[in-house]
Each structure stands twice: as C-alpha cells, then as structure tokens.
C-alpha cells in the first residue's frame, strides 16, 4: 500500500481518537510522575526496598539486586552510589563507616524510619505503564525482507532461552520455600517468581506457534519456487 494510504488512515484515526489519546497520555504522565523519584527514575525507591531486607554496602546492594530482583529490575554501580548519597542527604538512609583491617573502610547503609515510610508511600502509588522495546518482534515484523530461515533461527533461540527461564524460576521458587519458610516477605517474593514463570511459559507457547507458522510460510515459498522451476522446464 502507498504512503498516501497510510497517511490518510493515520490522519483519520488521529482526528477521531486524538482527544482520548491526549487524555490517556496525560493520565499516564501523571501516574508516572507520582511513581518516579524526583531524579526521574525509581532507583532510590528500589534501593530503599533492598535496604529494608538488611543494612548493606553499595557492593552488597548490587549483589543482592542481581540475586533477587535482577530478573525484572537492574541497577548499576553508577546508579546505586549517587542514589545512596541522595538518600543519605534526605535522611532516608543512614550511613555507617566500618573499619576493616588491611582493607579500605566500608560504608554500610541502613533504612531509617523516614525511609521506611517513604518506601511504604512509593509501594502504594500505582506503577507507571512502560512501552516495551523488543528487537525480536521488531525484526520479525520486517521478516519478509529476509529468508524465513533467519526468522526461524531467531525464534528457536528465543524459545530455548525462555525454556531455560521456566526451569530457573521453578528452582528459585523451591529455594525460597526451603530457605525462607517463615519469612512473611517470602510470599511476596514468590509472586514475582510466579509472574516470571507464567510469562516465560506463555512466551514458549507463542514461540512454538510462531515456529509452526514460519514453517508453513517456508513450505509455501518452497512450493512456489518448485512450481516456477517446473514450469520453466516444461516451456523449454
């Protein structure tokens, strides 16, 4: 279809739905503004959550994030230390310097009463919606410009990765139940693990369906190619 066609359709849709889109976007931005920290990210709030588990150094915080919420949230040292400095200045966390023999001093951060209240307030604010960026889907959308085998290879690798994720989430759930049977927070942790497992299982199902569709497309291409070759031979 021509660019003019898409331009006409886009203009028509914008005319009909622009007011609703504008209002929805304003609502989204308002929610996002409440959910985000004044620095523009949720990094400080994420650190408050991690410190609610126990006092930690910046290095330990990074390790705990990788081992606990790392499947759905990540923070780098470049984000952690500036945020800790800001949280300390605001009185939300307290810094204590520990002396170490033969090693540099270590700063350990703990949550204050004010910080715990801030964490509670943040948890109560609805989470802001995020627009995902998925390179696999982007390439699949334009997959018709390359051999079907290229798309099939990418999807097959994706399915394998998600199958590994399902197994990993199952192991994490077993470990949490085994090591934290009486921890009241563990039930909330398991909710996030369950989300990851269900999400990966759904992606595996989608991937298998997509592989079948790609195989059907590839089969159709092969039949057309074979038919053209046969027709050419008959003409000769």
UniProtKB/TrEMBL annotation:
Source species, domain of life: Bacteria
InterPro entries: Tscrpt_reg_PadR_C, Tscrpt_reg_PadR_N, WH-like_DNA-bd_sf, WH_DNA-bd_sf
Transcription regulator PadR C-terminal domain residues: 133-215
Domain Transcription regulator PadR N-terminal: 47-121
TM stretches of this protein: none
UniProt xrefs under PANTHER family: NEGATIVE TRANSCRIPTION REGULATOR PADR, TRANSCRIPTIONAL REGULATOR YQJI
Protein name: PadR family transcriptional regulator
Lineage of the species this protein comes from: Bacteria, Pseudomonadati, Acidobacteriota, Terriglobia, Terriglobales
């Amino acid at each position: 279809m021509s660019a003019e066609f898409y331009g006409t359709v886009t203009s028509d849709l914008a005319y009909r739905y622009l007011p609703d889109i504008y209002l929805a976007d304003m609502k989204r931005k308002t929610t996002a503004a409440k959910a985000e920290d004044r620095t523009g990210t949720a990094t400080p709030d994420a650190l408050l959550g991690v410190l609610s588990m126990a006092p930690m150094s910046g290095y330990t915080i990074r390790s705990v994030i990788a081992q606990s919420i790392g499947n759905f949230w990540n923070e780098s040292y470049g984000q952690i230390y500036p945020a800790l400095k800001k949280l300390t200045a605001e009185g939300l966390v307290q810094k204590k310097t520990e002396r170490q023999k033969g090693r540099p001093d270590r700063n350990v951060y703990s949550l204050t009463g004010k910080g715990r209240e801030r964490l509670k307030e943040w948890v109560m604010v609805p989470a802001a919606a995020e627009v995902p960026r998925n390179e696999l889907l982007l390439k699949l959308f334009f997959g018709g410009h390359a051999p079907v085998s290229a798309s099939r290879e990418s999807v097959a690798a994706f399915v394998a990765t998600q199958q590994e994720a399902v197994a990993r989430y199952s192991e994490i759930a077993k470990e949490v139940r085994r090591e934290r049977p009486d921890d009241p927070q563990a039930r909330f942790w398991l909710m996030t693990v369950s989300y990851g497992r269900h999400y990966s299982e759904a992606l595996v199902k989608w991937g298998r369906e997509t592989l079948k569709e790609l195989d059907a497309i590839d089969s159709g291409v092969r039949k057309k190619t074979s038919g053209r070759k046969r027709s050419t031979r008959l003409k000769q």
